[in-house]
Amino acid sequence: MANVKLIMGALLMSAPTMAAQVPWFESNSPLTQAHRNLLNNELPAMFNSLVEVWQLEKNRAIAPHLNDIFLQSLDIDCGKSLDNRSFPEWINNLTVRSTEIQSPGRDAYRAVVEIESNRDIEDISVTRWVSKNLSTDNSFEHALPTNDLGTQKYIKRYNLNSRVESGLYRIDVTATDQSSWSSWLLIGEPKAKMTVRWDAKAQWKVEKSALLNRHCPLPKLDVALYDYVDGEYNQVWGESHDADYPTSLDGIDVEPGRYVLAVSMSHQRWQGPIIVEQSQIISKTYDVSVEE
Description:
single chain, about 290 residues, alpha+beta, Immunoglobulin-like, 3 domains, 8-stranded mixed β-sheet, 4-stranded antiparallel β-sheet, globular, DUF2861 domain-containing protein, DUF2861
């Protein structure tokens, strides 16, 4: 918290100079309120102020500055206090995931929303302010029940041409009985503190570029093998690690053949009750011989 106060204090002390150059820095503007609320550890109020700032078209030029404020707020409790509203009783969990998939010669990007609900869900949508659909290349599916209590999982996938941009988004969920719920979602410029890259045939490196946020879950490493059958990828083996990350594929029991090996590193935070996840996936073909 001391670092936050030093950084934000320095920004506020520079306000007279900034005000002479930029008209938006006013004594009681939403941006000034965002600074003040962060200094006072009033995170829901800070979040609301940032939403207001993003809604002002003239403030697009200060997107990097807004991103810095937002990332500083995550140092307090990893985003748990950004929104003090709870889900309606018919939504149990909601996860928003942005993924970058790095394959030989091709990168792909995806945004996914997963909801666990005890009601039938008609649709899930994510739009970028103002009213911009993430992608027309999307799908909505009802997955298998998550438990014996009637909780269902629903997944909305968006295939994208580039990374999810930082900024203000809106999530809307509609049940078949026309119950609805919506929320603003702030996405910051991704600055992954741990990444993975290939090192050899079935070996990879885990690289750390910055200190981890002690309030957030440890980054999770997933390793999986997929078989390609009838136009679909089916996972045949996998394991997860949140510490002591392996760097090679050893001693697995699968049939000989050609597979896709995928290694992912995921960082997780919160926005109130919403889980927000950023994932990097590297993949390549992997041949298992009889000798192995």
